[in-house]
Design goal:
This protein is an alpha+beta fold. It contains ten helices and six strands; from the N terminus they run ααααααββααβββααβ. The protein has two domains: 159 residues, dinb family like domain (Four Helix Bundle (Hemerythrin (Met), subunit A)), CATH 1.20.120; 71 residues, Nonspecific Lipid-transfer Protein, Chain A, CATH 3.30.1050.40. The chain is 52% helix and 10% strand. The protein has a four-stranded mixed β-sheet with strand order 4-3-5-6.
Amino acid sequence: MPTRARARTYDSARIRAAVTAQLGHVRETVAELDEKPLDAPTRLGDWTVRELLTHTAATVDAVGRLLAAPAPAAQEAGVNDYAAAVASFAGAVDEGTREAARDADPRELLERAGARFAELTAVAPGDRLLAVPVGAMRLDDFLVTRCVELVVHSDDLAAATGAAVAFDRQAMAAAVRMLADALAAKAPGGSVEVRIPPYAVVQCVEGPRHTRGTPPNVVETDPLTWVRLATGRTGWAEALDAAEVSASGERADLAALLPVLA
């Protein structure tokens, strides 16, 4: 059952602007690509860049599609519920993406998604409920999940094409915070402090709770590495070996808890 708990409060105007900005960065990058890179492989199974971009457009276009549908009667889910449920509808997403990518130009899909998003979210209140697969969610909560999708897939695009995709600061902040809160919800407790400066600090994992001074168990990493760890793009051991994450204390091993969203 969904918890209905919200990890934190997000500023409505900033979240909407972050989605628009990060989508804009994706579109700018794609505009510089010719047709050949669209058929290049990605790190997402056997998806090509074409499928990746089709899916990216769909994640934003979902906002307009859901706003066009009747609003549910009551809230049923929050941001953490969405993170925990993503894997359950991955199969349907994969099938729909492949079908859509066969007949459309991903550049046009991205452009249409951006235009529709701007038009509909300009007037929709943040507490407007949307009938998402995990349960009825507030619009602003759903937009946080769109920031995660856009940041993650911007990084996927960069990895597949070698292009330098820019990251909007607010979109990255929202993605980092949502994924950090998802870890804390997955492994509640106070024995490990996870730091992702400058955006988030959370405590997690059962055990003795830290109250003052330097915590005995600390994990620290940068925002992009955290996004990659939390979504399975980078493995825990790989990040440690590359000195992209530091972990001190006998409980500061998050390997069994990652990814939190895949």
